[in-house]
Design goal:
The protein is mainly alpha-helical. It contains 4 helices and no strands. Helix 1 (2-24) packs across helix 2 (32-52). It is rod-shaped, with a radius of gyration of 44 Å.
């Protein structure tokens, strides 16, 4: 009789050990048959564990749903914040593009002015050049 009690206790302890190891994820084998065998042996442990430590109570489900709703609200706020930041950056980019375009136009105008001035200077005689120089910088001979 004592042998049977010891054998039953050993079998129960072995089933508990297999159930705990399977639940923790340590018993994942390549063989489907071996995995199915250990999962079947872990079944009673999982049943007892779920009955004793019921994680699917209505309160815990409501808590999970409320956390998910809060997370969605925070996500929406976060998204709105980033959308506003993106809109501000796009406005800045558009402003900078407008400034760049106006500076490009000014640069082109300056380039055309330099080309026309250099063409005018090439056409001028030396007397005209000296007169223009004296207009701009004064006559240093008189000083």
């Amino acid at each position: 009789m004592k042998k049977w009690v010891i054998i039953i206790i050993v079998v129960i302890v072995a089933l508990l050990a297999i159930g705990i190891l399977h639940d923790a994820g340590y018993l994942n084998f390549q063989s489907k048959t071996l995995t199915m065998l250990f999962a079947a042996l872990a079944g009673p442990y999982m049943f007892i564990k779920n009955k004793l430590f019921n994680r699917n109570s209505p309160e815990s489900v409501e808590e999970i749903v409320n956390r998910a709703k809060d997370g969605l609200i925070k996500d929406d706020e976060h998204r709105e914040d980033y959308d506003n930041k993106i809109a501000q950056k796009e406005k800045e980019i558009n402003s900078l593009n407008a400034q760049l375009n106006s500076l490009d136009l000014k640069l082109k105008e300056m380039e055309t002015k330099t080309q026309t001035v250099s063409a005018q200077v090439r056409e001028m005689t030396t007397e005209e050049i000296t007169k223009e120089f004296e207009k701009l910088y004064g006559n240093e001979k008189d000083d």
